[in-house]
Write a structure and sequence with these properties.
Layout (H helix, E strand, L loop, with lengths): L1 H7 L11 H18 L1 H9 L19 E2 H6 L10 E6 L9 E5 H17 L8 E8 L8 H9 L5 E11 L2 E4 L1 H12 L5 E5 L1 H13 L11 E4 L13 H12 L6 E7 L2 E6 L6 E2 L5 E5 L13 E6 L10 E11 L12 E7 L10 H8 L2
Parallel strand pairs: 1-14, 4-5, 4-7, 7-8, 8-9
Antiparallel strand pairs: 2-3, 5-6, 9-10, 11-15, 12-13, 13-14, 14-15
């Protein structure tokens, strides 16, 4: 997979314009591998009368049959024996169902190279030790979710002096410990090492609101950062505007908006989307984004809202080459941002339920249900 290696080794992580041809070849390589090694995926491509050799120019990537994330929540699709996979990760789970995604060594290595380049660009790495407040799950042998692995992995960006978790196992299930988080914040605010938050924005908001109610305000040490990812999940009805969250963080913690960094991603699409200083998710060289009309599933123009289709040749172990999320979003020209990055940026607007949408992936689902 020499083209994938070249792509993930590209020096500039947002040099999308100069990597169009390379990305196409990497996608073709991956598609060919999935076609040859995953029978259900091959059947799906054949159902839509598509073959890897149909990827002849960049526009053909839009024609590549996509798999909705709910396909992976209902079916396990692997393109190699599990013994060849270094790790497996799962999604958080919807109504008891979750995606199970495998990663081989070369796919993980590609991911590490990506994280290194994106992390250096956003100045996430430091030799200065930090205390970590993880606004998510404390790792447990029974928890293999990608969001837990990712949050813990973010505590390796600097030497970790301590880790405090907002969600801990109690009586066999996870329960929030906001009081424990607040106690840790108060304690670390009196020290000289920075504090880094990582996890769900919802739990950051709950912690900040509780501190406000208790009239607790601190000034965290210089270099403290807030890293957010994972969305609001089941708390979407309590979601607040980003600016409100940024202002609350500065009022309660003394952390300015410039030190708040957000991430977007999915276990079925393990690409690190990290916001720029203007808080926009620019598309990196490792992926491409297609926004599709909700009714026709045809690509829409820049700025128009539709379903978010994500494409990456990162891993071989699972056929996640092109997946359709249940997110509504829009793509914007990079020069509209003002941060200097020229690649388009993705705006996430909301979510929809695929049970309410008739998609061209119905044929794929029908085939898999017969298995």
């Amino acid at each position: 997979m020499k083209n994938r290696s070249r792509l993930f080794g590209w020096k500039e992580p947002f040099d999308v314009a100069r990597t169009e041809g390379l990305f196409l070849e990497a996608v073709k390589e991956n598609c060919r591998f999935q076609y040859e090694h995953c029978e259900p995926y091959r059947k799906i491509l054949e159902h839509f009368q598509f073959s890897p050799e149909d990827l002849k120019e960049n526009k053909d990537i839009e024609r590549l049959p996509f798999l909705p994330t709910w396909v992976f929540k209902n079916h396990t699709l692997f393109s190699m024996p599990e013994r060849r996979m270094l790790i497996q990760a799962t999604s958080s789970g919807t109504k008891g169902k979750f995606s199970r995604i495998g990663f081989e060594f070369s796919g993980l290595w590609s991911g590490l190279r990506m994280v290194w380049k994106i992390g250096r660009w956003r100045r996430l790495f430091s030799f200065c030790p930090a205390h970590y407040i993880v606004l998510g799950y404390k790792p447990h042998k029974g928890n293999q979710t990608a969001v837990t692995k990712t949050a813990y992995g973010a505590t390796l960006f600097t030497p970790a002096l301590s880790r405090t978790f907002a969600l801990k196992i109690k009586n066999g299930s996870y329960e929030p410990d906001l009081d424990g988080v607040i106690s840790a914040i108060e304690k670390h605010s009196k020290g000289r090492f920075p504090v880094r938050f990582m996890g769900f924005p919802s739990y950051l908001y709950f912690v900040l609101r509780k501190m406000e109610e208790q009239k607790i305000r601190v000034k965290l040490p210089k270099g403290s950062k807030i890293l957010l990812g994972g969305g609001w999940k089941q708390f979407y009805t309590q979601q607040v505007d980003k600016q409100i969250l940024y202002q609350l963080a500065e009022q309660v913690l003394g952390v300015k908006e410039s030190e708040v960094i957000e991430f977007f991603g999915a276990v079925e699409h393990p690409i690190l989307y990290c916001d720029c200083p203007k808080h926009h998710f620019h598309v990196p060289v490792y992926s491409r984004v297609v926004i599709r009309d909700v009714d026709t599933l045809k690509p829409v123009k820049m700025g128009e809202v539709g379903l978010v289709n994500l494409i990456t040749p990162m891993t071989l172990a699972t056929p996640i080459l092109s997946i359709m999320t249940d997110d509504l979003g829009a793509l914007h020209e990079g020069n509209e941002c003002g941060c200097g990055i020229k690649s388009p940026y993705l705006e996430i607007i909301g979510r929809v339920g695929f049970q309410d949408i008739q998609t061209c992936a119905a044929g794929a689902a029908a085939y898999l249900n017969e298995k």
